Amino acid sequence: MEMGETKKLNLDHFIIFSIVRPRTRVLDLGCGNGDLLYALAREKQVRAQGIELNEQAIQACVAKGLNVIHGDIESSLKEYPEDSFDYVILNQSMQQVRNVDWVIDESLRIAKEVIVGFPNFAHIKSRMKLFFSGRFPVTESLPYRWYDTPNLRFLSIKDFEDFCYRKNILITQAHYLGKRKKVHFLPNVLACDAILVLRESKEAENLKEESKEDLCGSIQRR
Amino acid sequence: MLKVDKKDPSSVGVVETKYFTFAQEDGGMPLQCGERLGPITIAYETYGKPNAEKSNAILILHALSGDAHAAGIHPGLDNPGWWDEMVGPGKAFDTDRFFIICSNVIGGCKGSTGPSSINPKTGQPYALDFPFVTIADMVNAQCHLVNYLGIDQLLCVAGGSMGGMQVLQWVASYPERVRSAIPIATTLKHSPQQIAFNEAARQAIMADPAWSNGDYYAYGQPEKGLSVARMIGHITFMSIDSMEKKFSRRLKNGTLSFSFEADFEVEGYLRYRGANFVKRFDANSYLYLTKAIDYFDLSGGKLIPPDKKISTKFLIISFKSDWLYPSQQSQEIVRILKRRHVDVTYCELSSTYGHDAFLVETGEQTNLIRHFLNNVYEERF
């Protein structure tokens, strides 16, 4: 790995870069200018596909040699067959979709693992600002005002963990990010952002396998 | 059209149309309709030079009324080719790097064999004796040309509208010979609305008494019918915004004439376009080509057969204001490629020019195409 290239990555990109295994298939939902996908394609020889809404960002991706599809996250997920990818990346984009539940389910359907990165609404600064000023908190990781934020969902790390528990989704890795480095203590208070790796629980996977076998069986019987 | 400065360094300069004739034997090339056509002549132009391995060849495919003259100027004339802003040194299709071929379709009237060509059996123009050709037949004919030029694999096939259909057909017919494909503002199949516009155009031609069942070559062509057909086409090529901007309700002579003269600028424009078109296009070719477009259908697994894996890379482009070939039709192609794990880039460019955008909105297209081609050529990822 050439450190020169990856050093230029932001901390969140660097963490995701480190999670992804070489020579895998990656779908980045909301890939922006393609910096992360470019590093992955170049340094880890992944087969990269991006989804992006912004025309300028698409131009930037194409200039880097990446495959990118113009579209929104929800409609882009639909057509992929099961297990099309090793990873789906939802970095700083999950909180901007309307149908989070469905997007996570679909991502787990088409990929073995889903890497989710989102800003932590329960960060100490947000808590303080809301508590002391009584106004919608504007922070480094949530830099928008209530009326111009692209975010539709405001969640804490604990909220997301509860969500996964309820949906029977396994969190196989958790990385908590401060402003410049990782946070290891009281993440739901001290982390600005979280990056989690999700996987379907064993039971869910088994169910999927069974239904596949059922299908094969019925085809064979025919 | 813009005039080209002969010393313009971004122009390919003076070019000539060349001709290639094949299928002289065995009754000619078999066609999808069951008949055979031969001999077949294809008019084509080339720009740039092939490299030693001939791995830098790009085939450009034209739309309904286009021709082989995509770039540069013809000797003694000023009008540049139909995609001159896209083809040339340093342009999207960079002639300093790539060897560009543009061929006229069979069934057309711009130098390739079509209904206005002489039927060797009768010594008269084919007229309606010309067999029905399909987009697949056009591509098969182009394949003969590519073979003749000694090219095993094309770096890219690219084109808009009917040209885009030929791009898709190239992938369906000869996937192993196409490293990358750029279908622009096109579709896998015509919708009933698109067929309807073509049918209205055909009816306009056939309703003109001068059409005489296609047998008009001795007397002059059905100009009235053909010009109305072209007017219908031009309406569908523009968008509501581009028409508003270009004409609004402006009057030609400042006041209403209370007659059936062309009062509005838009009327004058359509009449002018129609009148010009009949000077350069054969009415029977218009009938045959619109039918070929309507017959075209690569939906439902015909683009990539279910048992086949292809390695062609795609760049698909559509335009927001194009209501004739709306973005949903391009997205349908993307959907199929996603299902089949084919590398695809898709962009809907914002333009107000409607379907015409693929010819005139060259800036953003240039960026996408230039980078895409360089990436494919250099095999970056």
Structural notes for this entry:
- The complex is a heterodimer of chains A (222) and B (381).
- By secondary structure, chain A is of the alpha/beta class.
- Helix content of chain A is 42%, strand content 22%.
- Chain A contains ten helices and seven strands.
- With 381 residues, chain B is α/β, with parallel strands linked by helices.
- Chain B folds into two domains: 18-189 and 297-378, Alpha/Beta hydrolase fold, catalytic domain (Rossmann fold), CATH 3.40.50; 194-292, Rna Polymerase Sigma Factor, Chain: A (Orthogonal Bundle), CATH 1.10.1740.110.
- Chain B is built from ten helices and twelve strands.
- Chain B has helices at residues 135-148, 162-173, 192-207, 223-237, 240-246, 265-280, 283-295, 327-339, 357-360, 362-378, and strands at residues 18-22, 29-30, 36-37, 40-47, 57-61, 87-88, 93-94, 99-103, 156-160, 180-184, 313-319, 344-349.
- In chain B, β9 (156-160), α2 (162-173) and β10 (180-184) form a beta-alpha-beta unit.
- The mean pLDDT of chain B is 96.
- Classes of the chains: A alpha/beta (222), B alpha/beta (381).
- The interface between A and B is medium-sized, with 22 and 24 residues.
Question: Oligomeric state of the chains?
Answer: heterodimer
Which strand order do you get reading across the main beta sheet of chain B?
1-4-8-5-9-10-11-12
Q: Would you tell me the structural class of the helices and strands of chain B?
A: alpha/beta
Euclidean distance between termini CA atoms of chain A: 51 Å
State the order of secondary-structure elements of chain B, H for helix, E for strand.
Answer: EEEEEEEEHEHEHHHHHEHEHH
> CATH H-level name of chain A... which superfamily?
Vaccinia Virus protein VP39
**Unreliable residue stretches of chain B:** none
What order do the helices and strands of chain A follow?
HHEHEHEHEHEHHEHEH
Protein topology:
The complex is a heterodimer of chains A (222) and B (381).
Chain A: H1 3-7, H2 11-19, E1 25-29, H3 35-44, E2 47-52, H4 55-63, E3 67-70, H5 73-77, E4 85-91, H6 100-110, E5 111-119, H7 124-133, H8 157-167, E6 169-177, H9 187-190, E7 193-200, H10 202-221
Parallel strand pairs in A: 1-2, 1-4, 2-3, 4-5
Antiparallel strand pairs in A: 5-7, 6-7
Helix pairs in contact in A: 2-3
Chain B: E1 18-22, E2 29-30, E3 36-37, E4 40-47, E5 57-61, E6 87-88, E7 93-94, E8 99-103, H1 135-148, E9 156-160, H2 162-173, E10 180-184, H3 192-207, H4 223-237, H5 240-246, H6 265-280, H7 283-295, E11 313-319, H8 327-339, E12 344-349, H9 357-360, H10 362-378
Parallel strand pairs in B: 5-8, 5-9, 6-7, 9-10, 10-11, 11-12
Antiparallel strand pairs in B: 1-4, 2-3, 4-8
Helix pairs in contact in B: 1-2, 3-4, 3-7, 4-6
